[in-house]
Amino acid sequence: MDAKRIIQFLKDVSVNNNRPWFQEHKDEYLEVKKNFEEDITRAISRIAEFDSSVKNIQVKDTTYRFYRDTRFSPDKSPYKNHIGAYISAHGKKSMHGGYYIHLEPGHCLLSVGNYWLPTNILTACRNEIMSNEGKWLECVENDKFIKLFGKAENKGWNSPKGFGLEYLKTCPSGFPKDYEHIQYLRMKDYCCWKAVPDTFFDGEKWLDEMVGIYKVAKPMLDFMNNVIDDYE
């Protein structure tokens, strides 16, 4: 991937986030988009080597519009300052978890998991954690997982690594407040991420590193998808 060019274009968009400038540089955007999507196609193939559920996913099923929806936002900038792909066996709009690749100047990352789950599915996930506590802890408290993603804490995307984007302030209703591993019940999503430098995606070697990172997170992903798939 020509990550240097992609990152520079995203920097330029941040400084010139307006339609006239973008129209003048539309060809450059299309070249950047093509380069990114070519490597996402390669990423899908590499992920499919250890997760066959994504083997038939097309790149168009993983990427997002570069144009922002500004209808309900005070920020009326028309374009995003990042580019990303969410590789999920059920598509990027499904609740079934997947693998996310994010390029943004100073904030590139790789992520794995399930996002924005509704309350009924979160309840099922929490029940599954309590029912199969030993298996869950094997997924998220082994040395490799903790080294890459850390422990379950409310840190947010700006942290260099993390597990769980949002947490309830207290124990969810209907669950024991004295549960030993209550941090996993307070989670409102089950995703983990690792920040990488802007240079991470240059060349071809990043695909090997990506595979290593994603393999560590896959048991956690499978645990939750086994619950979520019953509701889709």
Structure description:
The structure is a single chain. By secondary structure, the chain is of the alpha+beta class. 42% of the residues lie in helices and 12% in strands. It contains eight helices and five strands. The protein has helices at residues 3-15, 19-24, 26-48, 119-131, 133-140, 143-149, 182-185, 206-228, and strands at 83-87, 98-103, 108-114, 161-163, 190-196. A five-stranded antiparallel β-sheet has the order 1-2-3-5-4. The relative contact order is 0.16.
Comma- or semicolon-separated keywords:
single chain; 232 residues; alpha+beta; 5-stranded antiparallel β-sheet; 5 strands; 42% helix
Give the helices and strands, then pairings.
Elements: H1 3-15, H2 19-24, H3 26-48, E1 83-87, E2 98-103, E3 108-114, H4 119-131, H5 133-140, H6 143-149, E4 161-163, H7 182-185, E5 190-196, H8 206-228
Antiparallel strand pairs: 1-2, 2-3, 3-5, 4-5
